[in-house]
Amino acid sequence: MHKGGSMKKTEWTSTTSFILASVGGAVGLANVWKFPSTVGANGGGAFILIYFLAVTFIAAPILIGELMIGRSSGKSPVMACLDAARASNLSSRWRYLGYMGISACFIVLTYYSVIAGWTIDYAIQSFRGHLLGLDAPAAQNAYNAVLADPRRMTLFHTIFMTLTALVVSGGLKGGIEKFTNFAMPLFFSLLIGMMIYSAMTGAFSQALHFMFVPDFAKITPMVVLNAIGQAFFSIGIGFCFMMMYGAYMRKETNIPRTSYMIAYADMLVAVIAGLAIFPMVFLYGLNAGEGAGLIFVTLAVVFGTMDGGQIVGGLFFCLMMFAGLTSSIALLEPVVHHFVDRYGWARKKVTLVTGLIAWSIGLLMIFSYNIMSDFKPLFFISYLADKNLLDLMDFIVTNLILPIGAILICILVGWLISRDIIKVELSFQNNLVARLWNFSIRFVAPIFLLVILVYGLT
Length: 458
Fold this sequence. Notes:
transmembrane helix, SNS_sf, mainly alpha, transport, 0% strand, transmembrane, Sodium-dependent transporter
């Protein structure tokens, strides 16, 4: 029996607070770190064009479905999926969709905290002047030194996980809302400030041309899949934390309109991050498609060379830290609230226990870079043979759990859920928009997600 009480008693103070928290949950290292490197490796403007279409016709329609399920129940993802199934005369096994989502949240949190800890490390290094004068080999050596030092990584992993747990332990209004209402305006200010700085000092016109003048000759099946995958993962579809945030929504909030506001705000942040990074990359003649090293190696060289780079670099890595923190809060909240909602356990105790478990597993992720670097769990499978523990966990979540979870959401919302729930929860502007959403959630999104799933596993 449900002991925790209905979540409908706890709501966002305002729609603005909900949007800030939701954008914060979606915006993370994937936007500030992965997006620019992915754009650089996939042809610039052509990639962004497909990315925009994917956000519009794949990611946002699924987001609408997740928020609808969450608000219709007002409970944690597991209970929300169960309530939707019961109201639609479906099997109670649909609750496992919620379990998949919160499991993905927990797994990602264990290593996300490790990677986000690097941003704190680099912010301190930059402010202290340790990045000054680094050339590319020296920056790579500095990055390798971070990965090789388990004590150093553990320190910043601990700091980051502690900050995450402190916010979540405060609940919706005393923790998540209070933090995001402060952090997101600061995040946007820092990001726009970085973009203005790049426009004034970097090769801004070259960056604009690279990002917004599509070269259609560069559009390949791989570029299309990467763009769809970036749209899908950057908004956080399949994690069910949007379902959790939807549980706190007020009934008068328009879900379709708000969903597109969140999706486009997330995309705008990613684009602004590109406009903050690429002018510096092009100014110094560096490789825009550097991949993961674009931030911690390539930009470390840029910040170490430019005038005022000690401060600019420190602020940039603080920006990344805020982006990571708002996402880690969104990852931990559904896990914590499941036990509060399902069993009526005290939030602070649940947060402490789940945070400690995630932190402990995170130590294994840290060791996978150094003292356990030779441990390849699935060495007997050729295309997974070279993956350490962290890479393997990321592969499982990114290529298996999330696509399957998103496809199941499409099936549940598009084909099976009671039409009464849709009528009550969704208020479309007109019938054409409603029909487009219905077509996207039934056909377009699941087909492309299935392709991504097959591609990712093969």
